[in-house]
């Protein structure tokens, strides 16, 4: 084929891709897609997968110390759900031509991003409530629109993830509700946890729109459906009545609703703290990566055994044929 024919083919493919996006159709792994679209998806989906896997750590910290058998089994189920989310997402990313090993290596070698939120410590049981309510709540706000992401495997993975996140958010709210309606000391513990997690949960939505280099293109490709600030607004609006139901104070003392614009006016997010965490200098970054690396090394025998078993089965099938 001549290069002119190649170029004509590429123009036709691009037109087909653009038409599918314009028509709200899904792009599937077999379809032609622009290289930048593929790379953007690998970036976002793998970062998302890493977040789910690293995100197991702050809550796993409380499994052995949960205050009752019921709380312990709920927490184990939640942490296992996060592992499952990581696996669906790694699988979705693999349909774009990257391997699980490449993604894992990038994470444990410190070359990959994962959500800033998981670089904070969980010193009290109330942190389990605050994570469920605020962190899973923010995750739902961000992820429900991703169920309509233009890339089929990502959107479909998000449907099940969102259902599970709803249960997570509900259990977090319930932990906080019990604490905030318990003894004065329990209520103080709940307020303290919410004070520590509120601002970092707002940072989960990413930089403000004017500082978000990827948003415009990702929205044009219908990967993202709303901007970072739009989703942050939606989340704050969702939290306000829930703060009241919990009987807890919102840590943002400047928060108010502007009737004229229909928007929440918020206090200033500490973007310096956000960039420090992204640069690897958050309270628990080093610990999270160290733990992930150790878990990877400890699991080497499982991977080797699984590969040896798969090889044995393949040989058996070949000899039987
Ligand atoms: N932390 O141009 P944008 C969960 C990076 S899952 C770290 O706005 P984009 C469930 C961004 O990657 C939580 N990095 O980027 C759970 C980019 O870096 P790059 C994870 C951040 O992609 C609950 C740069 O800044 N959820 O919580 C953060 O258009 C409980 C510029 O930003 C997802 O991943 C951040 N907060 O928008 C699990 C959802 N924000 O790659 C366990 C899917 C931004 O250019 C327990 N992802 N960055 O070097 C998304 O929706 C998007 O990727 C955004 C960022 C909105 C996170």
TrEMBL record:
<dbReference type="InterPro" id="IPR011881">
    <property type="entry name" value="PaaA"/>
</dbReference>
<dbReference type="GO" id="GO:0097266">
    <property type="term" value="F:phenylacetyl-CoA 1,2-epoxidase activity"/>
</dbReference>
<dbReference type="GO" id="GO:0010124">
    <property type="term" value="P:phenylacetate catabolic process"/>
</dbReference>
<dbReference type="InterPro" id="IPR012347">
    <property type="entry name" value="Ferritin-like"/>
</dbReference>
<dbReference type="Pfam" id="PF05138">
    <property type="entry name" value="PaaA_PaaC"/>
</dbReference>
<dbReference type="InterPro" id="IPR007814">
    <property type="entry name" value="PaaA_PaaC"/>
</dbReference>
<dbReference type="GO" id="GO:0005829">
    <property type="term" value="C:cytosol"/>
</dbReference>
<dbReference type="InterPro" id="IPR052703">
    <property type="entry name" value="Aromatic_CoA_ox/epox"/>
</dbReference>
<protein>
    <submittedName>
        <fullName>Phenylacetate-CoA oxygenase</fullName>
    </submittedName>
</protein>
<dbReference type="InterPro" id="IPR009078">
    <property type="entry name" value="Ferritin-like_SF"/>
</dbReference>
